[in-house]
C-alpha cells in the first residue's frame, strides 16, 4: 500500500471510483454527490494543482483525498478552537465502495494528519456538505 500524489493519467480511474461512490451513496439514500459534483474537470484541476493524493494497493487506485488550504466563505462564521496559523483542509475524501471497511479512508486521514504536521499546519479541517 502507498499514498502518493495522483497523476493525470489516473483521472479515468478516479472518475470510476467517483461513479461507484455516487451509486453507493444513492443506494444508501444519500444525495451528496451526483452527476454535477464532483466533475472530471474538478478532479483534473485537483491533479494539476498537486493537491490530490491517491491510495494505491495491488497497483490499483482504491481511494483519494484532496489536501489544500481552500476554505469556503462559511468557514469564517465558525467559532474555531484553533484559529491561529495555517489550516490544512480535507476535501473530497473518497474510497471505492468495493473496498469499503478496509481502512482506506482511515489511512488517507492519517496521511493528512502526518502531512499537516510535517508542513507545520496548526489544524486540520474537514470540508463537509450540509443538506438544508
Folded structure, characterized:
- The protein has 132 residues and is of the alpha+beta class.
- The protein has helices spanning 11-27, 40-49, 104-118, and strands at 2-5, 52-57, 60-68, 87-95, 123-126.
- The protein has a 5-stranded mixed β-sheet, with helices on both faces.
- The radius of gyration is 15 Å and the shape is globular.
- The model has no long low-confidence stretch (mean pLDDT 93).
Based on the model shown, name its key terms.
132 residues, alpha+beta, single chain
Order of helices and strands: EHHEEEHE
The CATH architecture category equals 3-Layer(aba) Sandwich
Q: Assembly type of the shown chains?
A: single chain
- Within CATH, the superfamily carries the name Gcn5-related N-acetyltransferase (GNAT)
- The rounded distance between the terminal residues' Cα atoms is 38 Å
Write the layout of secondary structure elements.
Elements: E1 2-5, H1 11-27, H2 40-49, E2 52-57, E3 60-68, E4 87-95, H3 104-118, E5 123-126
Parallel strand pairs: 4-5
Antiparallel strand pairs: 1-2, 2-3, 3-4
